[in-house]
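Notes to self, Pimeloyl-ACP methyl ester carboxylesterase:
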Amino acid sequence: MDLGETFSWEGRRIAWGRAGSGPAVVFCHGTPWSSWLWRPFAEALSTDFTVHLWDMPGYGRSSKDPGHPVDFGVQADAFTALLAHWGLDRPHVVAHDYGGAVSLRAHLVHEVPYASLLLADVVAIPPSGSPFFRLVKRHPDVLAQVPPYIHEALVRAYIGSAGHRELREDDLASLVAPWLGEEGQPAFYRQIAAYDERYLAENEALLGRIDIPVSVLWGTEDTWIPVGTGERLAGGIRGAAFTRIAGAGHLIQLDAPVALATALRSWLLRVSD
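result:
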């Protein structure tokens, strides 16, 4: 499944792709990731669903213009516009990491209707952010100027720390690649500098408004965002289901692909009936 389509929005180029047939399912990635993480799961589900992948502006194969903000608010605006462009009516939304805050804001603030929402190890409510993340946020301009080989080593170590298991070299290379080069290196630090926890506080204050089926999945070994945060998130949403995924860290897609795929399909088949 390739991101062979583009959507022009506010001067940005958003890469996206669609496959399959059946009820619409939209996947939202986080940071410093891209839709690449969701691709195998989308492909597997395309036998029963119309699956949609997209890279947020500033990520993956979408444009990375240094003049374009990439904060939670902008990404929620972009997601709202993209859903309208697709003409989807109440899609099922699946989100990871930063995609949780983006999908929640689109639903709660922009009132975009969803059929259901599945949140996997998401950045959605405060607090969040690893020690390295907080360091970068304090010194984004300095770190953006480090030599490329040092930058690559930093990004590789940072991304590698998200998994509970050691990442395969080809997986690690795929996750690091968008953040290299003259365009990728400054974009990496720019998206961290844009992080604003006020959006997460707004999300938490509005959780009581959610009246759609919600499932929250969390890796028991997530060291970036502890499982207790996931429990608090689920506890704030009326009727939300909470499931621990054993042996998975923050990169649940790579740590526990079978458990995640099983939970995804089971959930979507149940809420699509």
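- The chain has one domain: 5-272.
- The mean pLDDT is 95.
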